[in-house]
């Protein structure tokens, strides 16, 4: 099927136009089996389109196309590859509103506060990595004066990238942009819940890139993701998702002895000291909990430790801020908070809320459910702030991936640092204080890969991002990630005697 990348204003029509396709070797194609599955708008429960249901045959076609394309792609000068990736970023920026509307439609994330922002960062990530082609350089090694010894960076080959549904555009860009600039070709497997906008991005980019450099498949994990990880021509796997699935991916990659990057989630602590700028910390909690995304973020600050001197005021201010947020149609510019992604996730989050209540926690429900009859089947859920909850209660200990924050009262700094580090996760953490010594001490002791003081920024280009412990392996979004994860170093020795 030919590619049509004219900017679209109607996300419903675009979803239909994209329905039933993978993108392989520069062409929109149906699944080998001919099978599809429904893509559902979580704000209404209505089917908005179909995704191609990929299997091992589709993986074979996509990987072979990528392997064939990589032969010529890796021979392009690195800066030329970078220019093409930069052009992709420029083109994607022109489609930011279109992509924002489509991602809001299929994920339920509010257009103004979340989806349009994600589309902008998607473009920025390509622009950032596109400018790094000249950094793919090696070293001169003083091994022996009679021998010229150098190292060079070479691409690994075909990269298999598996992405989740919560911020699919950003997380895809963090994988494919550095991989492409480094000389690799890519096969992306999208999340079942959010395949259409990823397909649209691939379609737009394939108007610029040579055929086969960037291929996209949709499907289910065992039938499509599994064969992608196991394919003998896939030389590297980059995965973002749950710890359970990450372990499966890691085992499969280990059997083949290929490198893997894993970003697996978190249970991020936020520590608010008694000398903190309270209003600033409250805004940090709103941003950090990703309430506008219904808490569906691996970096969500879902464990908030507040000094007893400011605890009650902090809770009251956070509650007032979330109460003022509007929950409604994700495509409405007035909406602050959208929906949960799927019925399964909705039930999971509700289960955690009930478990917290049974454990003795006080559940403070915030904001208000939309009253529009057209949204009565939507997966809208009031954000919940738990107080008086024990650290071992399920909502306080386990990753929920929903709008549920647990606020704990503390008195002793040493004790709260120890408590913050008890989690099996170690993705992100923040400390809020005016005292420089406390801030520096906390940044050294908090067991997380992404630590901030008096702010709670989301992932940005050029900020090395990744966790420790069960939160994963490797870093993304930086020059380091391009060099360490998408190239290998070759040592060359020339004997001049």
Question: Which labels suit this protein?
Answer:
497 residues, Aldehyde Dehydrogenase, Chain A, domain 1, 7-stranded mixed β-sheet, 6-stranded mixed β-sheet, 16 helices, 39% helix, 20% strand
Quick synopsis:
This protein has helices spanning about 10-20, 55-75, 80-95, 95-105, 110-130, 170-180, 195-205, 220-230, 245-255, 280-290, 310-325, 345-360, 395, 415-420, 435-445, 480-485, and strands spanning about 20-25, 25-30, 35-40, 45-50, 140, 145-155, 160, 185-190, 215, 235-240, 260-265, 270, 305, 360-365, 385, 405-410, 425, 430, 450-455, 470, 470-475, 485-495.
CATH architecture of the largest domain: 3-Layer(aba) Sandwich
CA(first)-CA(last) distance? 59 Å
Shape: globular
Q: Rg from C-alpha positions? A: 23 Å
- What oligomeric assembly is this protein in? single chain
Count up the helices: 16
Family: Belongs to the aldehyde dehydrogenase family.
GO molecular function: oxidoreductase activity, acting on the aldehyde or oxo group of donors, NAD or NADP as acceptor
Keywords: Oxidoreductase
Protein name: Aldehyde dehydrogenase family protein
């Amino acid at each position: 099927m030919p590619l049509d990348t004219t900017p679209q204003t109607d996300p419903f029509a675009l979803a239909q136009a994209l329905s039933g396709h993978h993108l392989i070797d520069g062409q929109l194609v149906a699944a080998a089996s001919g099978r599809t599955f429904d893509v559902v708008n979580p704000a209404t429960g209505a089917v908005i389109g179909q995704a191609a249901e990929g299997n091992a045959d589709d993986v074979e076609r996509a990987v072979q196309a990528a392997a064939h394309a990589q032969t010529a792609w890796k021979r392009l000068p690195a800066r030329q590859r970078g220019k093409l990736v930069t052009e992709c970023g420029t083109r994607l920026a022109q489609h930011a509103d279109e992509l924002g509307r489509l991602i809001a439609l299929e994920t339920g994330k509010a257009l103004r506060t979340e989806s349009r922002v994600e589309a902008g960062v998607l473009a920025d990530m390509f622009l950032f990595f596109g400018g790094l082609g000249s950094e793919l350089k090696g070293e001169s090694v003083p091994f022996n004066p009679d021998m010229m010894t150098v190292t060079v960076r070479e691409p690994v080959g075909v990269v298999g990238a598996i992405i989740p549904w919560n911020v699919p555009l950003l997380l895809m860009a963090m994988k494919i942009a550095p991989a492409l600039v480094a000389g690799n070709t890519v096969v992306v497997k999208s999340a079942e819940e959010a395949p259409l906008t990823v397909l649209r991005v691939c379609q737009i980019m394939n108007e610029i890139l040579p055929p086969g450099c960037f291929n996209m498949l949709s499907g289910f994990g065992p039938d499509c993701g599994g064969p992608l990880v196991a394919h003998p021509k896939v030389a590297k796997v980059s995965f973002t998702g749950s710890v359970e699935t990450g372990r499966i991916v890691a085992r499969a990659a280990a059997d083949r002895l290929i490198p893997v990057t894993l970003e697996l989630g978190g249970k991020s602590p936020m520590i608010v000291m008694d000398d903190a700028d309270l209003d600033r910390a409250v805004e940090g909690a709103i941003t950090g909990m990703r309430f506008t995304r219904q808490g569906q973020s691996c970096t969500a600050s879902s464990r908030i430790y507040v000094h007893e001197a400011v605890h009650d005021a902090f809770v009251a201010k956070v509650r007032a801020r979330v109460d003022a947020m509007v929950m409604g149609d994700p495509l409405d510019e007035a909406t602050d908070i959208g929906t949960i992604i799927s019925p399964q996730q909705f039930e999971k989050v509700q289960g955690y809320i009930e478990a917290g209540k049974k454990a003795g926690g006080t559940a403070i429900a915030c904001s208000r459910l939309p009253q529009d009859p057209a949204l009565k089947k939507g997966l809208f859920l009031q954000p919940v702030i738990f107080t008086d909850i024990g650290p071992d209660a399920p909502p306080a200990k386990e990753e929920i991936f929903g709008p549920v924050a647990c606020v704990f009262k503390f008195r002793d700094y040493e004790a709260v640092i120890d408590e913050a580090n008890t989690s099996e996760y170690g993705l992100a953490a923040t400390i809020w204080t005016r005292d420089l010594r406390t801030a520096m001490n906390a940044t050294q002791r908090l067991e997380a890969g992404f630590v901030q003081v008096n702010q709670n920024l989301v992932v940005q280009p050029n900020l090395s991002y990744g966790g420790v412990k069960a939160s994963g392996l490797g870093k993304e979004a930086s020059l380091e990630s391009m060099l360490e994860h998408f190239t290998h170093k070759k040592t060359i020795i020339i004997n001049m005697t």
